[in-house]
Amino acid sequence: MVCSSWSWPNMFDVARNRVSLYNDTASIVNRVKLLMLTEPTELFMTPNFGVGLKRYLFTYNNDNTIAIIKDRLIEQLRIWEPAVIPEDTTVTRGLNYTGQSSSGTSIQANNKLELTVTLKTRYMQTITFDLTENDLGGTQ
After folding, report:
1. Which residues have C-beta within 8 Å of that of residue 108, sequence separation ≥ 6?
2. CA-CA distance, 6 to 2, in Å (whole number)?
3. What is the mean pLDDT of each run of 10 residues along the chain (140 residues)?
């Protein structure tokens, strides 16, 4: 797979005097995260770019909210991300970890915005990544 993009926001590697790049799946994950975290109208001259995930930060993390985020993400992937098959995208509530913490209590994320996004690329790879409140600049 030949796919690369700037490693935004840390794209300048001053020590090596070059621009840093993400390659392959890291590139796709970076671009999709930027797409999800950008508010519509935030990008100059492109008012329809972005899912606007920050607006859901203080809402209930229920199935309705997840469905809205997923629909908006699929719509944006169709327009802006050619390396992904939008129809095969899934967004699930909470992190894909079921188990217990070190103290023996079960781990649950009830009302935190924690999402697991699974994408299928046109290169027939499946990519899974997590978005948490830390990615949005919130506290955890």
Report:
1. 94
2. 14
3. 63 73 78 88 87 81 86 93 90 62 51 80 87 65
Beta strand residue intervals within the chain, DSSP E: 4-6, 12-13, 18-19, 21-23, 90-93, 115-120, 126-131
Distance, in Å, from the CA atom of 89 to the CA atom of 14, rounded to the nearest integer, reads 36
Residue type, position 20, single letter? S
Q: What is the third-level CATH fold of 4-131?
A: Nuclear Transport Factor 2; Chain: A, (3.10.450)
Residue 4 CA from chain centroid, whole number = 17
User: How confident is the model at residue 105, as a pLDDT?
Assistant: 52
Per-domain boundaries in the chain: 4-131
Residue 21 token pair: 């790049």
Rounded to 10°, the helix 63-80/24-37 angle is: 120
Q: How far apart are the first and last CA of the chain?
A: 35
Single pTM value for the model: 0.73
